[in-house]
Amino acid sequence: MTQTMAPPRLKIYKASPELYDAMMTLSTAAAKVVDPELGELIKIRASQLNRCAFCLDMHTRDARKLGVSEQKLDVLAAWDEAGDIFSARERAALALTEAVTVLGHGGVSDEIYRQAAAEFSDRELAQVVAMAVTINAWNRINAVAQSPLPRR
């Protein structure tokens, strides 16, 4: 049985450094008014759905440094079943993140949008959406590049 070697993956940021710069600019802009702990929950949840180990590794470490509880990190994949562990703002942001990450034919439902709009100012809501969009872009770039986990 012959094994074929996978082609080497594109080093996307070396091939296009301006892409990395643009992504970092978008990431920074999206985080302007979002609570850092909430931001990490958004990034982790989208990365779970997208199965991006590289981003999961990075953002769970960042979340721990910010003081996000181990219990929240442990049950984040089932946040909607976790009772009052997550605040109303966190639940609204996580529902919106899931809707943005797994777009169906209906897009983001009116109910999910209403819940998020009730919890966040227009500026905050715009940035929560931008954060979900940005981490999805990072996840997809890493999927193409097959970014390896750093060894610790």
UniProtKB/TrEMBL annotation:
Q: Which PANTHER family match?
A: 4-CARBOXYMUCONOLACTONE DECARBOXYLASE FAMILY PROTEIN (AFU_ORTHOLOGUE AFUA_6G11590), CYTOPLASMIC PROTEIN
Protein's name according to its UniProt entry: Alkyl hydroperoxide reductase AhpD
Q: Which Gene3D superfamilies match?
A: AhpD-like
Give the GO molecular function terms. peroxiredoxin activity
